[in-house]
Structures are given as C-alpha cells and as structure tokens.
Amino acid sequence: MKPNDKQIGSSLNRVDGRLKVTGAAKYSAEYELPNLTYGVLVGSTIAKGRITSLDTKAAQNAPGVLAVISHLNSPKVPGFQPTGKEPSQPQTGGEPLKVFFDDKIRFNDQPIALVVADTLQRARHAARLVQAQYARETHQTNMVAGAKDAFLPSSAKKNPKSPMADYQRGQPDAYQTAALKIEQEYVIPTEHHHPMEMQSITAHWEAPDRLTLYDKTQGTIGTRRDFAKEWNLPEDHVKVIATYVGGAFGNALHSWPHESAAIIGAKVTGRPVKLMLTREQMFTMVGYRPYTWQKIGMSATADGRITAITHESIGQTSSYQEFTESTLQQTRMMYQSPNLTTRYRLAALDVSTPIWMRGPGEATGSFALESAMDEMAHLLKLDPMEFRLRNYTEQDPEKNRPWSTKFLRECYAKGAELVGWNKRQLQPGTLREGDWLLGYGMGVGTFGANRGAAHVSARLQPDGTVLLQCATTDIGPGTGTAMTQIAADTLGLPPERIRFELGQSGFPQAGSQGGSSTVNTVGQAVQDACLALKDRLRELAAPGTPAFATAKKEDVALTDGHLTLPGNAARVPFATLLQQPDAALVNVESKANGADKDKFSMYSFSVHFAEVAVHALTGEVRVRKLVSCADAGTIINLKTAANQMKGGAVGGIGMALMEHAVIDDRYGRYVTKDFADYHVPVQADAPAVEVFFVNQPDYHVNQLGTKGIGEIATIGVAPAIANAVFNATGKRVRELPITPDKLV
Amino acid sequence: MNDFSYTQAASAKEATGIIKEKPQAAYIAGGTTLLDMMKANLLEPPQLVDLNQLPFKGIEQTSDGLRIGAIERMSTVGEHPLVVQQFPAVSQALLLAASPQLRNMASIGGNILQRTRCGYFRDAAFPCNKRVPGSGCPAIAGDHHNLAILGVSDSCIATAYPGDLSVALAAFDAVLTLENQKGKQRRVPITEFYLLPGKTPQRENVLESGELIVAVTIPGAAHARRSTYLKVRERSSYAYALASAAVGLDVQNGTIRTARVALGGVGAQPWRSREAEKVLTGAPATEATFLAAAAAALQGAQPLEHNRFKVELAQNTLVRALQQVA
C-alpha cells in the first residue's frame, strides 16, 4: 500500500482471520495446563424447593474422581455471605445466584453439584451417579400467571428518572378516545443466544491468593472485578484471559454460576479445573432473551399523523434477581406523537436470570412498535414507509433536543430502492408466484450511540512496529482489525506494522464488549493513545533535534524507521528514541462522552426491508431478500461491518421465524434442549443480505465519527419479516416465531 | 455417559451371539442416534457391537426389486443412480434428512430404527411411558406441537419414527430382511415392521432381541418411478418434518391407475394411507381427487390443542405432493 492510503473505511481483512480459520486461535476451553482437571456440573431436576439429600458416594468412588462439591461441602466463599440484597428483600433488585451456598433450588437445572475428575469422560460419568432428593415447593414459570403480579423494577422505584420508570408526555393513554386507533398485544418467547462456542472456563489458583481465569467473557475487567469480590482478593491478584471469544451475543456480559463453580473446584482440588457447559446447559446456566408481553395502543389522524401511543411491556425475570432492558426506548423517540405513555414491568418466575441478547430490549420493543406502525398504516390505507415519514422526528421528542446526527431518511430511500419497494402492493395477498404468496415489509431499529471510558497503551518497538494493548474483548465483530486501522491512520503506518492486543485483564482497562460501544469507546482511546505516542516521540526527539520541540504532534510522522517532520525537515532514527526502556510507551485514558452528551441525543439508526414468500398451502416462510441500511456514523471497516450487519440480520430471521424455547410449566423445565428442538437459521434460511451504510461521521460521539452497529443489525429485522408476511398473506402474527402452524 | 466396551463384529453370527450373552449390549453402525442417547444418559449399554464390518452392503437390482444393504450410508443410497431413477421419493427422503455430515455417517438400518424426538422421551427428568413404562405421558397435556395425530394412544403420542426414509419405504411396499440369533432370515414388509403404541409404547417394532436388519428391498413400479417426497418443516433444512408426504402415481390419459401414499411427521409410525390410495385409484388426476384423498388420509386424526394445525397441514402437504407428480 501507499503510506497515505486511508485504512479507515477500507475492507482490511481480519488481522486474526488466518489464526481463526487454521485453528491456531486459542479459545478458553483450549488451554492445557499442567495437572489440569475437568469439571462437570449436575443440575437440579425440580424448579423450586430444597435439596433434602444428596448421595455423592458412587460419584466419589468412581474412577478418576477428585472431588464432588455441593452445598454440603463447598468451601466458604467470602463474597457469598449475606449482603442484605437477598431476594427476600425485593426492593433491592436481588443478586446473582450463589452456587452451592445453600440447599435452595430456584430454577430447574440449577447447578447442585460439581464433579471434578482427571478426565472429562470420567467427570461426566461420575456426574451421572449423583442422586438428589428434593422437597418440592409450588413453582411458577408461566408468564400469563406471573404477569398478574408484575411489578415496577426497583431501579425505577428508587429513581423516577430511570429509563425503566413510567414515562409520560401529553395526555396518558390518549389513544383510547381517538376515532382511528389500534390496540394489540405482542409476544416474544424466550430465546437463547447459543453462540457456537459454549460457555467455558479454566480456573487456576496459581497461589492461594492468586487466581487466573481463561474464561469466555465479554469483559475481562468486569469478570476480574466479580471474582476478586467473590474471593475477597485485590483486583490485581485476579487475571482474566479471553483472547478469543467464539460469539456471545450478550450471554457473557455477566458472570454465571458455572464460573464460580469452576473456581471453587480448583480451590478444593488444588489443581486447575476446566469446565465447559453442554449445549443443554446453555439453556439454563447462562442468560437468555426474556419472554416479553407487550401491548400497544396507537391513534392517528386520517392523514397519517400519530396522535398518541401507549406502549406497555412485561418482561420475565428470575425470582432472585431483577433483569431489566430498554424495551420501550425506541417508542419514546422514534416517531412524532404529542401524547405518549410507556410502562415497563417485570414478572418474577422460578427460572434463571435473563441477560441482554443481541439488539436486547430494543429488538423486543421494536417488534411491537414496528408491527403496530404497519398495522396503523394498513388501517389508514397508507404505504408504511410514507406513514413513517409523516411521523419522522427531526429532533428527539423524548429529551427535546437535537439529534447528534440522523440519516434515517436516507436509509429509507436506499433500502426501498434496493428491495424493490415499488413492487409492494397496498392490498395484502395480491402478489403471487405459483403457490407462493409474496410480500414486502419494513422495520426500523435504533440504539444509543454510547461512548464510555477506556485506557489504551501504545509503545514503539525497536523493530519499528507499534504495539497497542487494551483489556477490551472481541466476541466476533473484528475489534482487533478495526483498532489496527484506526492506529494505522493515526500513526501513518501500514497496518502490518501495528499490533493490537486485547482480551486480558492485565492490559489497560476497558469496559465489556456490549451495547455497540466498543469502536466508539476503544476506537477513540486508540486514536488518543497514538497521538500521545507521537507526542512522546516528538519530546524524545526534541533534545537532539530542536525542530521537534516546536512541532505539532499531528505533523510528526513515522516513516521508514524514522521520526520525521513534513518535507523531511527533520529526521531521527527510532533507535535514537528507544535508548531508555519504556521511553516510547504511553498509557492513555479516554474519558466517556462529555458535554455533548447532554446537548444532543445520540443514536444509530437502521431500517430493514424484507421480501418474503409464503407457501399458500403449507405456510412455510422463505425470506427471499433482506436489505439492511444503517446510519451508524463512520464505518471503520466496510467488510467486517457488513459482515456484522448480515449476522445480525440472520439473527433477526431466527427471531422472526423459528427461535422459541418451550418450558413445560407443570415441571418448570425446558422441553426444548438441543438444536433439533430449538431452531436457529441454517444457511438455506439466510438469503444474501444486502447492506448499505450511510457512512456519515457523527463527531458528537467521538473524533472518529462512529456510532456503533452491533445492535441495530438485529433491531427491526423481526418486524420487517412479520410485516412482509402480513403483506403476503393478510395474516398478522403477533406472537413470535412465525411458524407454519400460525399460517396454515 | 457410562463406561462401555467395544467389539467389532466380523460376522452376523458373532454380533448376535454377543447380544445373546449380554442382552443389554447395543449394536452400533453410524451411531448418530445411539451416541446422542448415550450422551443424554438415556441408554447405557455395557458393550457396543460395531456392525460396520458385516457384509450387509450393496445396492443392486434383484428379481424382487432394488435391494439395499442395511449398512449402506444414507448419502450413498440417496445419491445412487438406481435409487434416483426408480424411486425418486426414496432418494429425496434421504437427501432432505439431517445434514450432509449425518447422512455420511448414518446407516440405512440405523435410520429405520431411529428414535423419537419427543422432548419428554429425551430427558430422563420427565416421565415417559416409552422410556419408563407406566410413568405417564406428559406430552399429552404438554408440548406436543410436533407430535403425532394418527395412530396415537392414551399412553403415547410420539412420532416414534421422526425421520423420512421409512415414510417413503412404507409408501412403496419395501420389505425388510431380518436375521435372528439363530442365523435365520425372515422378510417383513416395512408397513408391518413398526408397532403402534397402544398400551406398550416401549415396543416400537417387531425385532426380536438381537435380530438384525440385513437389507431393504423395494419393488419397482410405475408409481414408484413417478414419485416425490415433500417435507414441510420449521426451517429450510436440517429439521424434522411437521408433515411430509411420499407419493407416487401412475397416471395414464389423466386417470390414476395406481397410487401410493404415506405421510410422515403425523403418525405414531410412518403412515401408509391406503384410504387415500383408494380414493386416488381409478380417479381423474385432478385437484378435487387430491383433496378427497387428503381428507381420507386424515380422517382418523386425533389432534390435540397444539398439533391441531397438523390435520390441515398434512392434507395440504399431501395435495401439494400429488400435484407435483400428477
């Protein structure tokens, strides 16, 4: 490449692509340590009650077994002592499950014992021999029943300004008295993340007070904090390594009982313990997208101006911990409506605690909102895009302040063109190809363009490369690649001279990878670190070459092993600058978004267009075309960004058409517990997804102009497909997924 | 998963001899059903007897029809020119099943013996009459959206055979050759091979202890050459059928001379519908005939709350399949 070719906005191949496809990239379950042992968890078979007896004798005596740990013999975990946040104190929001702490069962398949053995096979065999007896208590896993006792989250009770609190502008529930209105209920079932890599951890006590974890996590710093607290250790005594993460979609944003269990197992045996959940355990021992009931009332004038929206939601949570998400956020800001009411509630059930799943609450909320928009447009006999345009918000109606940037209108136009929106007929059931009914639908998504604080270090190495380090993780989007591009442009170096290391808690701190914030946050820190490095190099050069003393850091360049100034006005070999160890090392903190955050509302926006075919006889739905358009600010890497949009769109297909976990409420236990029962899209379900980026910078978010794409890739896809199904068939499915039984 | 020993049987005699001594031992061919169940602790055989060295191989034309060795792989059979030409429905049933990886492993005999996907059967924490006779059937009042509506009983509503191949085999009068522990062979039509659940859902077929499936023979016929297998499922590939239909028609001058119909995904066993065939035979190949045949096929359906849709879905699937071959 020529040195002045811009890397930002290019399609640089993944810097770790070769390592991943050749198997050289090491995931958390692939670390082999001396004396390694294997842990297998035993789950409860009831949903609520107490363990009255636990027979571990056979397991204990099985070949190769080193320990069988349960509430009967678990060592005292300092962080498991009473905190006053127990579920019996409902105002506190509860707390995570304390594994092996007591005899109480709070959900089905709750870990009740850990078997540690010298091989995985022996551990697995022995786990099967553990026998538990229970005193059952009446459980409740049914949302319809649970919703009767739905409650305001404690965060909203404490803080009326919390996004979880009731929201009101204009008159409450004003739609009820309007002439033109709709009122409908929408349901999203429990869905599971099921990343390809199952949750796994290798826990190693390197000394009685020093813990190393090779762990599947989206945040090395958060995981370090959790387990330092759990074991009452100084944070720097806990090391978390998550160099590669094989997908997560949110389910590694919290610490889970299996991680605590592996650490306990390593403590008891004095040997490192490797523990990987089975696919079945991925349904119960880590989080999931909560079952959510929603109701929308909407009214409009005959010429298509929305006059009122009421959006209510009840989400599932566990009996011991409140989980909340921003299900109603999009409704408060997406469309112009003088009267607007939102009410968010939780229903506590005897299940494990949910967690954010890609697009999180916004994806759930947008299914209801964007379906309702389609229903209203149909009532008004308006094109659904035209209806959205008539209610387009030029500034944030929730906060009454301008958008930092908003190019959603451009997304509508481009998406309509790419999908062939002009073929859409106002009358459902009009288009047909043989026995296949064709339809078109759209759905809009939005997610906050958040930027937090992050630290990044940068060091000029003797070989002329620059090493950057940060504790952030890469769960798949290609973080290392994007950071390499940002550093390359800032330093004026080709990407192969940059090395960006991540995924270790010992590196400079950064938050978890989640909420579409990594490029916004860490990207800015990388840019800052690179500029700081240039400045440091300038300072180092100044004593010997005075021209550098007065030079601006932006003008300093790294060229062919030298620090240079424009026009070759000055030139110092790197070797001269690197005479003192660590001289060319900077460690920079970039702060979270500041003043602009209060002046502007910052969001990424997306719109998805679907063309579907529904078989008239059998109700099979095929997504024939999916177009995803995003206003996500500057796109750092066109290829990995498009890849992320496509992955999110396919996730949306799963949400719309197949993902559905079934609990038998009589037993409080999942009936679907493998990939034969719990369907995710296969290649044949995924059409070629067309992606369009507006690619306009938003400098209010950061100096790169990025806004984030991970969540908006999924938000709005499910309603686009549901709306297309309606357009094809005239059948409105308000409870996902849209399986043939609902259309036949 | 339990500890087990492993033996590669060199002959049928050796294989059946092991089961005679150790009735709890299990045969393994592709292992795609057995290993799943062992990992879920549903089966705990002390010994596995590998059948892959047995001479139950070959796909060849015989005077009785096309004979397929039981140890042949699904992919090999599905792609074999004789199968594709003479029994398109059989080929399609094989190739629409599972995934390429599974089809490369799974044997024909093993496929015929695959077990139900009923979620209650597959989890030992639930009661299940098929797994633990007398413990009850939670599916009847529970999640049964993809369970059977034909041939069910108060004891079990599972689609005991959830797959595809046997549906096509049932339609085209396939005959199984079995060999018992004494080395004696017998021939059983596949339509008589499976047992309805009745009060004994744990008994799924007529195999005696240790008896092996040696081969499948499918008689050639005009209706078999003009046949198709249509599979409706919750995603485009790699899913069990909600409803499927194997149909073959011999149509001349617009009149159906002979017809074969079997349904999958809806019966407690692969569901041959002689009622539908009766309606079709001698009738004009028209939509009205197909609708009448579909109605006849589902006449005895006993749907429950969550699988009621299957009555109409199966009829529509059958009509669509008949339209394709007419």
From TrEMBL, chain A:
Keywords: Molybdenum, Oxidoreductase
Record protein name field: Xanthine dehydrogenase family protein molybdopterin-binding subunit
Taxonomic placement: Bacteria, Pseudomonadati, Bacteroidota, Cytophagia, Cytophagales
Region feature (Disordered): 76-95
Domain Aldehyde oxidase/xanthine dehydrogenase a/b hammerhead: 22-138
Cited Pfam families: Ald_Xan_dh_C (PF01315), MoCoBD_1 (PF02738), MoCoBD_2 (PF20256)
Listed SUPFAM superfamilies: CO dehydrogenase molybdoprotein N-domain-like, Molybdenum cofactor-binding domain
UniProtKB/TrEMBL annotation, chain B:
Keywords: FAD, Flavoprotein
Species name: Hymenobacter aranciens
InterPro entries per the UniProt record, alphabetical: CO_DH_flav_C (IPR005107), CO_DH_flav_C_dom_sf (IPR036683), Diverse_Substr_Oxidored (IPR051312), FAD-bd_PCMH (IPR016166), FAD-bd_PCMH-like_sf (IPR036318), FAD-bd_PCMH_sub1 (IPR016167), FAD-bd_PCMH_sub2 (IPR016169), Mopterin_DH_FAD-bd (IPR002346)
Full protein name: Xanthine dehydrogenase family protein subunit M
Top-level taxonomic group: Bacteria
One Pfam family named in its UniProt record: CO_deh_flav_C
Signal peptide (UniProt feature, chain positions): none
Domain FAD-binding PCMH-type: 1-223
PROSITE patterns hit by this protein: FAD_PCMH (PS51387)
